[in-house]
């Protein structure tokens, strides 16, 4: 009697407060609420027929609603088996997940809890994949610096050089800038460069000093290069001579 009165609704405690026999209290409650089965059953059957797995965003929400309806059906005397629960879930998959539904059928689950456990694991894995994709979408990784790479390999190629071509390129570039900068006018003969490679570290650069004392250029009047190797355009030479005057 204490147990029944503890769990009974507050609105019914005062109505059955004078009833001291537990059996009599139970019968009175049964007589009063027995008609609710006729009210709850039609609604529960309608909810069961309209329940679809594809209407829920999460598996836990579907599972909660499913067992809420099943408990009402069982209270009204309806029998719900695991095969009915499995078939209800399989048939209400979304149309785009037909292949996924067939794969779950191939597992031949015997109990509904096995199916719902697999669905929960798959849902958690998909959420992790989506979260990783949102944190770093495809193609968001930093690309290597093409300019830096090209300049690095270009510097290595220029540093290596091959034969006389290196001397010609170096001399051409320095002669082009000759009239603007006196320091860059010093052209180096390729033959002199080859001789310097085989020269002892302590030996003085006599060839270079001799080259610098050859005299003035017949075209621009400056020292350090030959007229026949001079490649600057004539109008630049005229401007340079005018600036000297």
TrEMBL record:
Q: Where is the composition biased (Polar residues)?
A: 173-191, 201-215
Q: Where is this region: Disordered?
A: 134-221
Q: What superkingdom heads the lineage?
A: Eukaryota
User: Compositional bias (Basic and acidic residues) spans?
Assistant: 154-171
* Taxonomy of the source species: Eukaryota, Viridiplantae, Streptophyta, Embryophyta, Tracheophyta
Protein name in UniProt: UBN2 domain-containing protein
Instruction: Report the leader peptide range.
Output: none
């Amino acid at each position: 009697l204490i147990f029944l009165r503890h769990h009974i609704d507050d609105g019914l405690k005062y109505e059955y407060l004078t009833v001291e026999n537990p059996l009599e209290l139970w019968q009175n409650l049964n007589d009063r609420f027995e008609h609710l089965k006729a009210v709850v059953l039609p609604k529960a059957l309608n909810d069961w027929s309209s329940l679809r797995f594809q209407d829920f965003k999460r598996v836990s929400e579907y599972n909660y609603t499913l067992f809420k309806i099943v408990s009402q059906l069982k209270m009204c005397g309806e029998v719900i088996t695991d095969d009915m629960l499995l078939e209800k879930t399989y048939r209400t998959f979304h149309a785009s997940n037909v292949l996924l539904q067939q794969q779950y059928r191939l597992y031949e689950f015997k109990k509904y809890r096995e199916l719902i456990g697999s669905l929960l694991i798959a849902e958690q894995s998909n959420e992790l994949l989506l979260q990783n994709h949102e944190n770093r979408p495809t193609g968001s990784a930093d690309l290597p610096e093409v300019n830096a790479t090209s300049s690095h390999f270009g510097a290595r190629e220029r540093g290596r050089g091959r034969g006389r071509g290196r001397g010609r390129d170096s001399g051409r570039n320095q002669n082009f800038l000759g009239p603007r900068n006196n320091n860059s006018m010093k052209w180096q003969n390729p033959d002199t460069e080859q001789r310097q490679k085989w020269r002892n570290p302590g030996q003085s650069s006599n060839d270079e000093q001799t080259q610098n004392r050859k005299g003035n250029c017949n075209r621009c009047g400056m020292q350090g290069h030959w007229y026949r190797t001079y490649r600057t355009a004539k109008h630049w030479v005229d401007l340079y001579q005018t600036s000297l005057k």
